[in-house]
Design brief:
67% of the residues lie in helices and 3% in strands. With 419 residues, it is an all-alpha fold.
């Protein structure tokens, strides 16, 4: 029940202030001190009986028509508890009062809009927030409320408009948000209609949005990724490779997002360019995706033994269940024709069990993580579903072994190795 006390602390603090104010007013007028009911409500809170306390405060608010702040506090409390209908009723009654000053009406409109937003009534919330923006043209809360609604509705054109207005009156730059909205509009343009391929006009609109995204935020990795995709689709491998390398250098946390395209472009070239490039990127930001891509490239060029050695090097530095699962897949079981098992005795008998356990651990390992709130995800979200920030979800780094690495496994180096 301590969480209820935590939620009710602001309400209790306000009630204490209200009692003190009414006490002073009663002393000046010679009337009685009307604080007994509030003291009873506070006792309910201390006895961990929040429902009775809330009911009492609601009755007191209904008796005294001047307690605007108390109505706001009660409505906010009900919304946090999930009782949105009760919050809406309280805030509707408050908005309907004719005697509110401009500031009080602004607070009431905003709180009621928050109630409607929580209930999924976006059209009603939008109407109230638009009215609030008219009342408070220089305030940010109405615009931020509208931005939240338009993001939920994925109305990126309106998001762009509101973000531009916010950037004019806010001290906080909106370059990241502006670039992401342009990228969303570019992706909308690039989505092929059901009847066929993307038209030339759609590609041109996408390029315009991508240029605007990079103008707003020159380090926008997402815009570079989409530019590389367009270059790759039109057969311009040189431009695509340059853009993918820019992503790796300017946004190394997103290297895993360019790996499939990078491998595709470099695989078409002769020589060891793919392995050399992957090794270079691995030195910039080692991770699970690069370790697996390197293992695949090395296995294709030099065989499974070399690939296993490359994975073992990675695992000496990082406790990575995803790479360990791939390494165990390279261990021969003896079922292959002409291949002896890698181990015998108890370990060999239980190798498949070890593989299943590691596979389960790898499945539970979050591939991406928000560096602001810590949200774990299996795929990349450009906007964090938890904290709603843009560009904060990145490929999760495997946990370092912190100096626990043992000696390197014995092996004769091959000419194709890169360090």
């Amino acid at each position: 029940m301590t969480e209820w006390l935590f939620l009710l602390l602001p309400l209790a603090a306000f009630s204490g202030w209200w009692v003190a104010r009414r006490t002073q007013a009663g002393r000046r007028s010679g009337g009685a001190i009307p604080d007994a009911a509030f003291l009873r409500g506070l006792n309910y809170l201390l006895d961990q009986r929040p429902d009775k306390a809330i009911d009492l405060f609601v009755k007191l608010a209904e008796v005294d028509s001047d307690t605007v702040e108390l109505h706001l506090a009660l409505g906010s409390l009900f919304r946090r508890r999930g009782e949105v209908e009760r919050a809406i009723r309280i805030h509707q009654n408050l908005v309907a009062r004719p005697g509110l000053d401009r500031g009080q009406r602004g607070f009431a409109l905003y709180e009621l809009a928050q109630d409607y937003n929580r209930a999924g009534l976006f059209d009603r919330a939008e109407a109230l927030l638009l009215e609030l923006v008219e009342i408070e043209p220089g305030e940010r809360r109405g615009l931020r409320g509208l931005l939240d609604i338009y993001q939920q509705e994925k109305d990126w054109a309106r998001c762009l408009e509101i973000a531009q207005r916010l950037a004019l009156i806010s001290n906080r730059p909106m370059d990241v948000e502006l670039s992401q909205y342009h990228c969303e509009l570019a992706e909308e343009a690039l989505r092929a209609p059901a009847s066929g391929a993307v038209s030339g006009g759609a590609v041109e609109r996408a390029r315009e949005h991508l240029s605007a995204a990079q103008a707003a935020h020159p380090l926008c990795v997402r815009a570079m990724l989409l530019e590389g995709r367009l270059a790759n689709e039109r057969g311009d491998a040189v431009t695509a490779l340059g853009l993918y390398r820019r992503v790796a250098e300017q946004g190394p946390a997103f290297i895993s997002e360019v790996l499939p395209q990078l491998v595709e472009v470099l695989s078409a070239q002769r020589g060891d360019s793919l392995i050399a490039e992957l090794e270079r990127l691995y030195r910039i930001r080692p991770g699970s995706a690069l370790a697996l891509a390197l293992a695949d490239a090395v296995e294709q060029a030099q065989g499974p033994e070399a690939a296993a050695y490359r994975l073992a090097r990675h695992l000496r530095d990082f406790a990575d269940p995803i790479a360990l699962e791939r390494l165990l897949a390279l261990v021969p079981t003896g079922s292959e024709p002409g291949v002896a098992p890698a181990s015998s005795g108890p370990l060999g008998a239980h190798l498949e069990t070890v593989r299943r356990v590691v596979r389960r651990l790898a499945e539970q390992h979050g591939a991406y993580q928000c560096d602001h709130c810590g949200f774990l995800a299996r795929r990349l979200h450009w906007q964090c579903p938890s904290c709603k920030r843009w560009g904060t979800i990145k490929a999760a780094q495997p946990e370092p072994m912190q100096g626990e690495a043992g000696p390197a496994p014995p092996r004769t180096p091959t000419p194709g190795d890169r360090t």
